[in-house]
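Data availability (excerpt). The following record was deposited with the supplementary files.
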Amino acid sequence: MLVVWMFRRIGRQVASRGARWLLYPITMVLAVAAIGGGYETVREALDARAYPPPGELVDIGGHRLHLSCVGAGSPTVILEPGLGASSADMSWIAPVVARDTRVCVYDRAGRGWSDPVDEPQDADHIAADLHTLLTEAHVDGPYVLAGHSFGGLYVRDFAAQFPDQVAGLVLLDSTASRVRPSAVNAQAPTVGRVLTVVPAVAHLGVGRIIASSDYESLPPDIQAEARANASTSRQLASTLQEYREGATSVQQASALTDLGDKPLIVLTAGTGHNPTWQSAQDRLATLSTNALHRTAADTTHVSMLQDQADSAAASQAVRDVVASVRSGKPLPTR
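Predicted structure:
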């Protein structure tokens, strides 16, 4: 009704035909924005009630992070999802690993149910947040850390900052190749400008449109929850914040140069990568004297987590590292 009223007012009070034709589309855009914004506000409120956090919200000093732990035993496994991902992306792996030991998944700042923050989201900050989270939640180490994609940077940084708290590592198709800081830093102004408009665009429901066709290979009871969380402005902003700090995170993660004989498995997706990526994965496997580099055949970077069959290789890699930590024996060569 308001749109009709505005059109009538324009028709009556704007004498120039050209001006009227200019104002009509502007009015329509504003109307669509208002409708989209209202719809998204209602949907986010409904989603918050429909999908409460499965774990606990832990105050780590100024903001809360979501943490969910299942299973029993030690060492505790901490799963770290990649860029743009949340704890939901680990929904195939976590229950399988929980058959053997305690496993915890969490959402970084701005993801899932965790609060957003204004500070830089580079590897040092993310690893420090995780350490504080585990301390405040009384989750004792040392831990087996498993990181996918960008998450591999963050678990390597954690191992560099808190070596005594790490019993083993699993790098799941982890970001590893050297990134020229100048190349990524050149994109920083563009990413910064995008960050300023993300909240407004997300509030119009754009994030919901993007997420509507994703997560179809996750467990059926998780799909809607994952889409709801991925649609929020805070998750889109958090993804861009981490991307903007990508070159810094790569440099920070490179502080880890030697794991000694702590078990390490590097698992690489067998599909979709060039020889440069494969070589970088080989180099990651040199971080420990007790390391294996496996390739998951017919598996992509995404399906390694989100597909039930393809995630089996990732789950097995984590379980093998846990077994090696418990037994004190070298990793199996199979």
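Summary of structural features: The first helix runs from residue 2 to 13.
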